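pinned: reference chain
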Amino acid sequence: MSEPINGQVRRAGLHHVAPHPDGYYQPDVTEQSAGDPPVVRFYGEDNRTAHYSFARLPCPELHADLAVAWAARIGPVGQVRTRSGADNGWITLQRFLRFLGDLPQPPVCLDRVTVANLEHYRALQLKRTTATRVTQQMAAVKLILRHLPVTRLHWEVAEYVARPGDFHEPHRPGAGAAPGYSDREFMAIMAAARSDVAALRGRLRSSRRLLSVFELQPHTLSAAERERAAHLAEMASTGAVTPPQRPSTVSGSVTDLAGWLTKAGQLFLTTRDVLPLLVLGVGLSGRNSETIKELSPEHRVLEDRAVAVNVIKRRRGKARTCETVHWEGGPNDSGLHTPGGFFLLLHELTSSSRAFSGSRRVWSIWTRDNMRGTADFIRTRSAANGHIDPFDLQVGRWLEHRKWVAQHGLTADGNGPGAEPLVLSMNRLKTTVEVRRTRAVGGHLRSASRTNTPDVSFLHYLRSDPRVRDWADEVLTEALHEAEHNAHAFRGRILGPTGAAAFVSDPTGTAAGLGVSVDQIRRAVDGELDTLVSSCLDFEHSPFSGGGVCGVSFLTCLRCPNALVTERHLPHLFSLLDWLQRDLDQRDIDDWCGRHGVTWLIITRLILPKFTDAQQEQARAAKPDDLPADLLDGLKELA
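pinned: its structure tokens
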């Protein structure tokens, strides 16, 4: 959050409570000397900081008001809690100010900014990017302006920014996240990550074993091994990595940058080690890369079988940001194959560097002196002899995905003659894990959804994946074929429009054709024998109750020889179809077909075709909103 009054830094969230001053609160978060542009300071819940300066932005007359609005937006009363969120909002604010500055007559105060200006800005952005991104940008501008008193804005703009809605692009059919990787692509990615992590694990453990022998039994080492161990011992005790030199034709000797990185990599993780670890963590846990980056070193090992880890997912809102998850552990060599084993391995590999960086996260690496960052960050890095949390400045650290893909020769699936390089995406990797887990549990979203709600898993990860659609279609088709065979045993009676007309002219003949009495048909047509979705011609003698009074589910009626379906039952049948569809959304496909597949087929294949389109349309319009839940919930059809 932002810095409150009196200049004392206090962070909201993560066990810190933001102060709430008495009376009207205007955040004292701007640094501004007389005549100087304002600077807004940000302190995030993720402990990342930033300074946002208006110095190089146009429309200086607007800076003071917008600085106050921006400070409130990223302050304790605002909704921006992370450095990445603040950076994205700041980019939008800069873009909007530059647009205003390019107008023929730039506004000299905020009440000169009109709705026409905002719509002009929106139209201009639509020519440059997607409608979804423009909607997000407009929402960001509105949310900033909302923090200003309405008296500072043009009255139309005040109404415009206060208007609800327009903050999210309506969903378009077929739109969604990028699909996951194929099984071949996923296995290749994970194999590459495992090979890299296994190599760096062997590298660090080998150096640590050498150090242990050097401390306990130095006489067993060769002279070369003792010399190397002595250098490692100095690095381990101080954290400093002395740069090696190499000959130079210009100045005699220069720092060997590659050798420097290799030397540090004997004992500490370096930048090049981060990406394979991150890929392995996402691939094993199914968590977002941001969650893996935010992992805390605190954990509990549960009976050598699982690891309790605190994870952070900021998109859930403040109340549900943190949670404790239990990741499967396994034997000591499970670091490459289980999420719990991965966490323990990551904790082990970063421990040496973390002792110097003091990182609040499990991540810690060594970097060279030319690492960029704020002045505070550079001072902290220097004091720790180059050891840092790689995600301390921002969670979106550049990790050279393309270079790593090229090193391992990873290619995308394709039908062409030349294989295209694979595009590595952490979001697609997570989607792949969601897809594979959903397939493993038979499509039951409540069982498969471990990191999101079932709705979020479907909307953002599963719906757009072609492999999920193909697999689900195949499973559903097989299950319905099996149910269709059972549906052919349908013995119920249907009085369609032809039969109803025949009954008027020849009641006795029609009744004989259905195997019932004239009185039974008349009572059924009048509704005297109605059950839930049909008429029961003989409730006292049920074939499902040993010839006695019927005691089975109403969903079984349609398979009973005592059932008679007439036009009056169509509205309830359509309502039952709606209920069956909702129930399908709550179960895996095999379970649903076993329970309700026959009923669905009887209605859609055998009953509805007996009635005209006009009768069906009229019934749809008259269908009840729902059927009595106590008559449906939990009832099972007979096998």
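why pinned: The longest helix spans residues 183-216. Residues 412 and 422 are 4 Å apart (CA to CA).
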